[in-house]
Amino acid sequence: MTSPDAAPSSFPSPLDEPRQILTDELLETIRGRAATYDRENAFFTDDLADLKAAGYLQAMVPQHLGGAGLTLRETAREQARLAGAAPATALAVNMHHVWVGVARYLHERGDSSLDWLLEETAHGAVFGFGYSEAGNDLVLLGSRTEARPDGEGGYSFHGTKIFTSNSPGWTRLGVMGLDDTTDPDDPRIVHAFVTRDGGGFEIKDDWDTLGMRASQSCTTVLDGAHAPADRVLRRLAPGPSLDPYVLGIFTSFEILLASVYLGIADRALTLAVETVNKRRSMKTGKAYSQDPDIRWRIGTAALALDGLWPQLDLVAGEVDAQVNRGAGFFRSTAGLKVRVTETARQVVDEAIRCSGGSTYFNRSELGRLYRDVLAGIFHPSDDESAHSTVAQAVLGPLED
């Protein structure tokens, strides 16, 4: 067992060049569709087909199971590149990668309970994340959804899930619900997977949002969606848990989510630099890139952005290297997510301020990034829960 403060010799150097699946040509093709998907509030159908054809959905599946074998760190870097081209596409694909990341996390630690997921991904399955519930600030620690036992080890699920990204595209949906009937004195949070062709659910056509429109993260009403016994992964007591399944979800979700918003910020800064080099001041006749105030704003955005890449590499690299941080991973990954999403908003804001009033039009890519980046504040861990997590790690629990 590796000590919490030590990294094994295989720990990746920040100078290691990440392997890539997404070509520059594919990213430019995807970038070319993003505005249309956003304007029409349409699902990223062609993007998904191209990403499948490129083998991108198998990125983290180990090579011996039919995938590309990318690490979490490498996949996070790829997700940032994809987000720079089409944030909503990256966000929706992210939820599939999260589940593959969980399965990979368990597989590498000797737990084969999700190996079937890796194998099905290698054969084309697309996974969705059906956990979020309106008003459930417990997130993984509790559920408003009912998990009703079928008497054979399986469960049917009854409840409403929100922000179910990639709603038109998933073939398998990870869900959780509360079983408080099998033993009322010992309720359990049931984590399982249901299939699209198994029915028992309705996807509402209600995704009409400010940003991240192509993700089509529609509300999903579960009304008897059934998971057989071999697709029930965990029955955990409500509340905090260090079960590897929970750690796998938390670390994969937070790291990959952060990568999407880091990609948005990186693209915004690139666009701002291009713009201020082109725009010229009538007062001075010089490009705005020569204006001291503009240079200060660009410098501020770049300084903020530069601090995010090493943190993403470090936290993802620790998961890849199986550094044993235990509960410390809740602090490090929640902190990463909040720092990236908050900083990304600041970077995009500086880019907007540098680039002029044209960014207020819907045709502006920067204007679209401005809308997309706002979604970061709604994903768990939110600002409040992350601060609570870190405060508990530093100060200990609140007194009764």
Automatic annotation (TrEMBL):
Keyword tags: Oxidoreductase
Residues covered by the Acyl-CoA dehydrogenase/oxidase N-terminal domain: 28-100
UniProt keyword RNA-binding present: no
Name of protein: Acyl-CoA dehydrogenase
Signal sequence range: none
Organism whose genome encodes this protein: Krasilnikoviella flava
MF terms (GO), sorted A to Z: acyl-CoA dehydrogenase activity; flavin adenine dinucleotide binding
Domain Acyl-CoA dehydrogenase C-terminal as annotated: residue spans: 256-379
Highest classification ranks of the organism: Bacteria, Bacillati, Actinomycetota, Actinomycetes, Micrococcales
